[in-house]
Amino acid sequence: MSPLPSTAAPHSADLIVFGGTGDLSMRKLLPALYHADRDGRLAPETRVIALSRGGLTDADFRGKVDAEVRGAGTVPAGDPEGWRRFLLRLHHVSLDVTGGDGPEAAGWSAVRELLAGQEERDRIFYLASPPMTFGPFCRQAHRAGLVTPRSRVVLEKPLGRDLASAQGINDEVGEIFEESQIFRIDHYLGKETVQNLLVLRFANAFLEPIWNSLWIDHVQITAAETVGTPGRRGYYDHAGALRDMVQNHLLQLLCLVAMEPPSRNDRESIRDEKVKVLQSLRPITGSEVDRFTVRGQYSAAPGMPGYLDEPASTPPTELSHRVETFAAIRAEVKNWRWAGVPFYLRTGKRLPSRRSEIVVQFKDVPHSIFAGGTPNRLVLRLQPSEGIHLHIMAKEPGAGEVALRPVPLSLSFAQTFASRVPDAYERLLMDVMAGNPTLFMRRDEVEAAWQWIDPILSTWESYGTPPEPYPAGSYGPPSAHELLARSGRAWHEEELA
Ligand code: BG6
């Protein structure tokens, strides 16, 4: 985990956001920057320069941000003066990187003009654009003479479609930027509970001795979403749940649960340990793909459209019929600590609740003297209601026969720390500005994750058949239940039901 936020005065920076008028920018980046500004964490001269094909002036862009960001309620209404000051930091330049690599190609000279004489500032190129633009953008920025020693580049996911394309992108970006200047973002790593997982494991003595296959039966990692994919089919048809969520967010969570204690809290030690976990994942290939993975696609249910009926600018294609909106996998980490402990990963769109959590299911007591006990369970809730819940057995009050009941020992972050929980992007943007890459993915991590995902992806793609349907608003297809039921286990919510 990165050190606590520095109290030193923030550096002046130019944050150049390619794709700066897009959804991510409006929903996440700009609100995060505004909050940082409000907390005094942006230097007075820091600017945000949005690049897009939009043909907007600074005033148009500020008006758009005012309407879309303030309109969406992601920034508080009670700070009109602060908001006005924030808007003045914003600039827009029209740029098209698809028109060849010449330095004068559509817009670079305007970017150069804006950045002239500011070489001493931190210069952060944030690529909130499709991965195929990463290489051309970096090359063109370099040819335009804009990459300074104080430059960094932030790459949004997805980083490629498979191992080979990820390597290609890493090579292209690596020709222009040193690895230490490249920040590959996975916003799950910026979530409060995710960082708290490291603190829970490595700043408390009581868990580590039982954090292994002797005491833990299995681990469940769920990222459930109620939203579907309206208006996103163009992206989602080519991505699917495995690329969109599992290859990055879920595998990162698995790494943090499974990693060995690092020797130091610095930029490389934690990442070194995470890579070792990814490299220890048992490959799932051939006929095992059928046994250990599940893919589903939501179908229409009362009041909810199916994936193929979601509003989109184009009708469904062959790809739309085959793409998965739900994925579940039984993974195994092949090392001494975790031998025989399944890690169940699951994510899906249009599930019944929005819930991201890690459930660590402990084994039963070796010998029970009471009837009716259930094993302990540790639930790390990432969202909503961030917190940690340890389910322990307690005696129901009353005379007569001892009756047991599982009760949670609960820590709610909102109640315990009565402060605003910053959005993951806020934390990560401040880390980029401070030059701290600890919470970002190193090249070898991303590639190790693809290496494990690739055989599953290619086997799924070779099927040529649609994924198993599940009604929108349900917890995925029946096979997801069977994946655990085969070994007498159940997903967390099934056990609570
Ligand atoms: C993104 C995916 O990376 O994460 C989206 O592309 C998904 O499809 C989102 O909805 C989920 O993030 P969060 O923070 O809402 O869990």
Layout of helices and strands, plus pairs?
Layout: E1 13-18, H1 23-38, E2 47-52, H2 58-71, H3 80-88, E3 90-94, H4 108-115, E4 122-127, H5 134-143, E5 151-155, H6 163-176, E6 182-184, H7 192-202, E7 216-224, H8 233-258, H9 269-280, H10 288-292, E8 293-299, H11 318-322, E9 326-332, E10 342-348, E11 355-362, E12 377-383, E13 387-395, E14 404-412, H12 413-416, H13 424-434, H14 443-463, E15 468-471, H15 478-485, H16 492-496
Parallel strand pairs: 1-2, 1-4, 2-3, 4-5, 5-6, 7-10, 8-15
Antiparallel strand pairs: 7-11, 8-9, 9-10, 11-12, 12-13, 13-14
For CATH, the homologous superfamily of the largest domain is named as Dihydrodipicolinate Reductase, domain 2
Taking the alpha carbons of the first and last residues, their distance comes to: 36 Å
Name the helicity range.
Answer: 25-40%
Number of domains: 2
- The shape is globular
- Class of secondary structure makeup: alpha/beta
* Total beta strands: 15
Total helical elements: 16
Kindly report the CATH topology of the largest domain.
Dihydrodipicolinate Reductase, domain 2
- The Cα radius of gyration reads 24 Å
Unreliable stretches: 1-6
Major sheet: size, sense and barrel closure?
9 strands, mixed
CATH class of the largest domain: Alpha Beta
Q: Give the strand order, joined by hyphens, for the main sheet.
A: 14-13-12-11-7-10-9-8-15
Mean pLDDT: 93
Strand content: 15-25%
